[in-house]
Structures are given as C-alpha cells and as structure tokens.
C-alpha cells in the first residue's frame, strides 16, 4: 500500500510538470496494484485523452462507467459514458447504454433523446427492424409522445406493416381530436394520405377536419367524390347534409335528408332534420305534414320538447292553422303548461267566426286524441246498440230512436216471399228508381281485382332529386329518377333535357375507374391550395432530408446534433415532470467531466424548479466562463442577479464571480466596481480585499488621483472610496 501511495505522489508531481507520459506509467502501476481504485482509473483515462490515446482512454472510462452503473451511481456513469461518446462517436452501443441509465435515473426526456439518435442511425443504415424496435421502446417509455407515434406509424406503413401503421396513425388522430388541434391533424393527413391511398375512411376524416376548419366547400368536394363510390353510405350522406345546411344550401341539404330517409325511413333524427329544412325554406305545409304523420313516434322516444319547438315555430308562421293549434294545445296539456294553454284558447277566440266555421271538420285525431284519449273501447260499446253493430256504417246515417220505432222485424220463417219479389230496404241515400224500370240492377262500385290508383307524379320534386344526385356525381341514380318520371310522362321535355345534361357531365368526367386514386389526388390538391403553412413545413422537411443525406457520411455524433433531420420530437414539450434534482446533479457531473455544453443543457432543464433557478444560472455562467465565452457568462450572472428569489449571500457571490469574470476578460474597471460592491457589504468576503488592492495598483490608482477623479461624484461614494483606501 505504501508503494501505491508513492506512485500516486509521483504521478501528481509529473502532472504538475506536464510530464504526462511519466504520470501515465505511475497510474498504470497503481491500477495494477489496486484494480478497484476507480479514481486512479479515471485520472489515467484523462491523461490518455491529453496524449491523444483515445483507445486506451475509452477502455479505462468503460471500466469506470460500469463500476458506477453497477453500484447505482447512475449520474456519474452517465457523465462517463458521455465522455466516451465524444471520444468514439462510432460506438453506437453507448446511445443505448445512456438511454438505459437516464431511464433508471428518471430522466425520461434524456432517454428519449438518446433513443432518437439511435433511430436516425438505424434508418440511415437500413436497419429497419432495429429502428422499429427502438421506436416501440420510445412509445412505451412515453405513451403520450405524439411525435414518436407519428414516426412509428410512418415507418410501419413504409415497411409492409400497413395495418399497424394505420392503427398507430388513428390513435394519434384521436389524441389530437380530443385537443381539437386541427392544424396538426391537417399536417398529418398531408403526410399520411400518400401512405394509405386506398383508404376512404381517411378521406372522410380529412373532409370532417376541413369542416372543423371552416373549409366547407373543400370538405363537400371530397365527400361528393366518396359518395360516387358508395351511394348508399348513410354516414357520408349525413355528413353532406349537415355540411350543406351549415353552408346555407337548404335545397341540397333537404335532398340529402330525403335520400337518407329512403334508406332509413324510421330514423327520427333524420326526419327531424328534414322538418327543420322545410322550416328554413318556409315550406310550412310540408313541415306540418311530416310532423302530423310522425308526432306519436317522436313522443315515444321522449322528443316532446323538440316537437313543441317545431309546433311553436309553425304557430308563429301560420297562426290560424287549427291543426297546429290543436296539437300544440295537446302538447301543453301533457307538459302541464297551463298558462300557455290559456293563451292558445284566447288566440282561438280571437279568430274570425268565418274561419272557425270552415275549420270545424279539420282532422279530428290530434296528439291529444292518441295520448290523452277520447273514449275507451268499452265506453263505445256502451253507447252503440246491437243493431248498430249489425248494420255497420250505414246505421250512422239514421237517427237510432226513429229507426227502432218505425221498423218492426218479424221472424224470417213467418214471412212468405215470392221468388221474383225483391225486398228493398232504402238504408242509404241512393236515388230512387223510376217507375218504368222492371228491375233494379244492384252492382258494386269497385272491382276487387282493380289495381291501386297510381301515385300522383310530382315532376318538380323528382327533378330536384335528380339534380341533387347530379351535383354529387351520382349519374346512375340521377338517370334512374329521370327514367322513373318518363315512365309516367314520356314526353316531358325537362326530363329529357336533364338526361342530356347527365350524359354530358358523365362524359366530361371520363368515368375514371379508380375512385380512391382520384380521391387521393383531390385531397392532396385541396391541402396544397388551402394551407400554405403546410408548404413551408414541407420546405423544412425537404431541407431536413437534404441535410440528412449529407449527414449520412458523418459520424453518429454529428447526426445526433441535427435532431430535426431524423424526426422532430420536442422532448421538453412531451416530458414535463422529469426529476429536476437529477438534471441538476447531472449538470454538475457533466461540468466536472468538461462536458460544458451538456452541463448547460441540464442546468437549463433544472432551472424550471424556482428553488434552483439562481444556482442553475450561476453554474451556467461558470460553464460559459470555463469555455472562455465571457459574454454568455456575464449574461447568465446578470440573469441570476435580476431574480426576485435572490438572497443577500447569493448576491455577494454573484458580484464576486462577475468581478473574477471581468478580470479574466481584461476589463479591470468593471472588475473593480464588482469587487467594491462586495467589499462595501462585507470587507472580509473571500479574498475581495486582496483583489481590490491588486486592481487599484494595476490601474495606478492613488488616494490623490482618486480624489481628483471623484470631485463630481456623490458624497457617499467619496466616503466609500476613502473607507477602503487603506487597501
């Protein structure tokens, strides 16, 4: 052991004499005697670096780093590996080791940064499997990192894992949609549409995003193209209907809802939207007809409030319509709004008598009839007699009491009826037969085999429907509607003209077979035209790719410095809760190893903790001074001095360090001012008195010279100078 101590003393003397070769020999012997002497190994590695023996230095550093890591000194191990990384950037395994150690220390952001460099290296060397594995590790390490997920989705899609890429991309879209970050969503669509050119769902998603951005026309164009490929797609039709409505295009919106109802006739939400379209178009008759047909269905799904809104709107538009008044009256009875019920009654009483007279026979069955009830079936049976039940509808036309008193029926077996005699009961209002007729021909007014009456043809409405299909590019559907009209009206000139128009548009489009390719081109065009900021992003990306190509010939370390050229992932935005103390301690370790830039980066992270802000600024200043960058050092010290959390001890230390900085910067007057500020408060602070004396001598300052110089100064300043003039 004594021999070891002598060797250490010899090594120290040789280092002071700058005889590094001799010092190396001394330390080599120390390590041979005691292989566990980590401090001596580290000093030996530093001497190897000074003598440009990188290989030997790397070997010694690796032994030290492994020792620190295995014993839980992760920060020291990280600092050593960083030094090794600078010595030999080609050692790709160091990135993995650094990522692992940072993760163990809780420095997730640092770990991601190391792994990101690995991904760049693997991509440039076509090591795709390793790149994917590393990205998956990054995703697992920070599941909320959208940039990592985007990169992973991209590399999946480009390497025959399309389904995995699509799943990852959709997860990113979901997260961004929750944040309503539609600008980023559009950028992602621009990036990923070329990767999934045949995916209509992505096209639809792009259209919906354009709607959110207020670009209705562009979104509608995409949906129209999608609809050509799938005319029965209710989701696309619904999106189109809503978009037209938001665009103020009530006609197309109404036609879209009508088309939806043909596919799903019992969907009350669609029917509700159709009613709203009619109201927007002031077509109150159609709105009322829809509501009257479906009001009971609306009530069954607890949509009474919406029903009330519609009828109140109709009452404002057509206040004298008794159908509206009666139904609204019933709604108010159900909802218990008696005050509104009285208002309606008062409103009815104000209607002119002639209007009431003509409205007495309006449809009797209202919402009140079906819900509040008119009569139970048992009550009806109590009112009607057996004779009424036998005679059927005809009985209702005669007074019951008179008929029963005048007509007495005898048993059939007691009546003698001749074969040719016809008994005639005039129970209807049929015209009497003239005397000259020998017989009465009783025949039915309808034939059971007759077909139902053909529906009334509404050419204008059908042409509107055909026009809607034509606008969406649904040529076959438009033609079907037109041919349906011609079946009942073969000579209709308007329909024939519409068919010619359809044929012209079909020819102009050229009937392209690949709808998905057309969609992709259309989407790309819309994105290019509508979002110039995306073009600038592309320019940046293009520059990145070009720079990345140049970087392929550089070392891994050089590639790592160009972070955006691999893929952009802002670690500090993603990781908000790294261990500030670990960053602080790692910064100290980096500074001790001479890794000043890395140290500054760590102190910049640690300064997020208000309690460490002043210390971090001070240490950043030291790092800049150690590098010889006095300007940045001065800036860091002044930032610390401006802090509200600065205490008096820290203030004196900072002014003292500023004085030292100005001394080294060859600015003696500023150095003297800084030291003098310290001396005014504490004359015995460190060696401030000696430094002031040395500077005054250097500047040739005597008491007389100083007095002449301070003639115009304030009295307290003169007193201050006099007070320390003995120095």
Number of helices, where a helix is a run of at least 4 consecutive DSSP H or I residues: 41
Beta-strand residue fraction: under 5%
Please state the overall shape, judged from the principal axes of the Cα atoms: elongated
* Rg result: 47 Å
CATH class of the domain at 576-723: Mainly Alpha
Distance between the termini: 49 Å
User: Quick one: CATH superfamily of the domain at 576-723?
Assistant: Tetratricopeptide repeat domain
Instruction: Point out poorly predicted stretches.
Output: 351-454, 511-515, 529-566, 568-577, 704-727
Q: Would you identify the CATH architecture of the domain at 576-723?
A: Alpha Horseshoe
Let me know the average pLDDT.
Answer: 75
| Largest β sheet strand count, sense and barrel closure | none
Share of helix, binned = over 70%
Written account of the structure:
Helices cover 71% and strands 0% of the residues. The protein contains 41 helices and no strands. Helix 6 (93-105) packs antiparallel against helix 7 (108-124), helix 15 (250-263) packs antiparallel against helix 16 (268-280) and helix 27 runs antiparallel to helix 28 (493-509).
Key structural traits:
727 residues, mainly alpha, Serine Threonine Protein Phosphatase 5, Tetratricopeptide repeat
Annotate the secondary structure layout.
Layout: H1 2-16, H2 20-33, H3 38-50, H4 54-70, H5 74-87, H6 93-105, H7 108-124, H8 128-141, H9 146-157, H10 162-179, H11 182-192, H12 200-212, H13 216-229, H14 234-247, H15 250-263, H16 268-280, H17 284-300, H18 304-317, H19 322-335, H20 338-349, H21 353-358, H22 367-371, H23 377-383, H24 386-391, H25 400-406, H26 459-471, H27 475-488, H28 493-509, H29 515-530, H30 532-551, H31 556-561, H32 571-574, H33 580-592, H34 596-606, H35 613-627, H36 630-641, H37 648-664, H38 668-681, H39 688-699, H40 703-709, H41 715-723
Helix pairs in contact: 1-2, 2-3, 3-4, 4-5, 5-6, 5-33, 6-7, 7-8, 8-9, 9-10, 10-11, 11-12, 12-13, 13-14, 13-29, 14-15, 15-16, 16-17, 17-18, 18-19, 19-20, 26-27, 26-28, 27-28, 33-34, 34-35, 35-36, 36-37, 37-38, 38-39
């Amino acid at each position: 052991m004594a021999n070891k101590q002598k060797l250490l003393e010899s090594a120290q003397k040789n280092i002071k004499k700058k005889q590094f070769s001799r010092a190396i020999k001394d330390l080599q012997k120390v390590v041979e005697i005691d292989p566990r002497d980590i401090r001596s190994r580290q000093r030996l590695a530093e001497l190897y670096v000074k003598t440009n023996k990188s290989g030997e230095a790397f070997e010694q550093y690796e032994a030290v780093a492994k020792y620190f890591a295995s014993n839980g000194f992760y920060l020291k191990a990280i600092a050593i590996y960083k030094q090794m990384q600078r010595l030999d950037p080609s050692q790709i395994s160091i990135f993995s080791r650094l990522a692992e150690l940072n993760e163990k220390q809780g420095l997730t952001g640092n770990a991601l940064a190391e792994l990101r460099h690995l991904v760049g290296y693997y991509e440039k060397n076509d090591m795709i499997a390793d790149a994917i594995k590393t990205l998956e590790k990054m995703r697992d390490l920070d599941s909320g990192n959208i940039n990592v997920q985007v990169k992973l989705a991209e590399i999946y899609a480009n390497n025959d894992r399309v389904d995995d890429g699509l799943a990852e991309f959709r997860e990113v879209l979901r997260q961004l949609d929750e944040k309503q970050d539609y600008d980023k969503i559009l950028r992602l669509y621009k990036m990923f549409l070329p990767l999934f050119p045949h995916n209509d769902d992505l096209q639809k998603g792009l259209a919906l995003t354009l709607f959110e951005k207020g670009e209705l026309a562009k979104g509608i164009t995409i949906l129209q193209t999608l609809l050509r490929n799938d005319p029965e797609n209710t989701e696309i039709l619904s999106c189109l209907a809503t978009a037209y409505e938001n665009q103020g295009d009530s006609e197309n919106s109404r036609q879209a809802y009508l088309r939806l109802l043909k596919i799903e006739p019992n969907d009350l939400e669609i029917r509700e939207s159709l009613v709203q379209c009619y109201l927007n178009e002031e077509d109150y008759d159609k709105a009322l007809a829809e509501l009257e047909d479906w009001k009971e269905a609306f009530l069954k799904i607890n949509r009474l409030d919406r029903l009330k809104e519609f009828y109140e709107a109709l009452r404002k538009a057509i206040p004298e319509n008794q159908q509206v008044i009666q139904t609204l009256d019933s709604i108010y009875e159900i909802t218990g709004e008696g005050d509104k019920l009285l208002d309606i009654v008062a409103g009815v009483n104000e209607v002119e008598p002639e209007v009431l007279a003509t409205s007495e026979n309006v449809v009797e069955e209202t919402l009140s009839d079906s819900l509040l009830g008119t009569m139970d079936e048992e009550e009806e049976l109590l009112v009607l007699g057996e004779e009424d039940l036998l005679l059927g509808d005809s009985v209702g036309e005669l007074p019951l009491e008179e008929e029963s008193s005048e007509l007495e029926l005898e048993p059939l077996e007691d009546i003698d009826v001749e074969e040719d005699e016809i008994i005639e009961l005039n129970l209807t209002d049929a015209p009497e037969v003239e005397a000259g007729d020998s017989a009465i021909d009783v025949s039915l007014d309808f034939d059971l085999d007759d077909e139902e009456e053909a529906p009334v043809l509404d050419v204008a409405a059908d042409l509107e429907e055909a026009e809607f299909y034509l606008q969406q590019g649904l040529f076959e559907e438009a033609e079907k509607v037109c041919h349906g009209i011609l079946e009942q009206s073969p000579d209709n000139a308007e329909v024939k003209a519409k068919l010619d128009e359809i044929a012209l548009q079909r020819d102009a489009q050229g009937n392209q077979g690949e709808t998905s390719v057309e969609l992709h081109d259309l989407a790309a065009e819309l994105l290019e035209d509508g979002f110039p900021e995306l073009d600038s992003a592309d320019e940046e990306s293009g520059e990145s790719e070009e720079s990345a190509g140049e970087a392929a010939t550089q070392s891994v370390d050089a590639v790592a410095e160009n972070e955006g050229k691999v893929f952009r992932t802002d670690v500090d935005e993603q990781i908000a809760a790294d261990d500030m103390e670990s960053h602080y301690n790692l910064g100290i370790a980096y500074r001790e190893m001479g890794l000043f830039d890395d140290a500054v980066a760590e102190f910049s992270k640690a300064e997020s903790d208000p309690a460490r802000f002043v210390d971090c600024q001070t240490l950043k200043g030291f790092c800049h001074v150690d590098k010889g960058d006095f300007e940045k050092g001065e800036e860091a010290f002044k930032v610390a001095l401006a802090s509200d959390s600065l205490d008096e001890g820290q203030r004196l230390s900072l002014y003292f360090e500023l004085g030292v900085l100005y001394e080294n910067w060859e600015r003696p007057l500023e150095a003297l001012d800084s030291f003098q500020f310290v001396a005014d408060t504490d004359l015995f602070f460190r060696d401030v008195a000696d430094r002031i004396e040395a500077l005054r001598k250097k500047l040739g300052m005597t008491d007389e010279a100083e007095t002449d110089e301070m003639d115009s100064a304030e009295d307290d300043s003169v007193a201050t100078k006099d007070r320390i003039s003995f120095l």
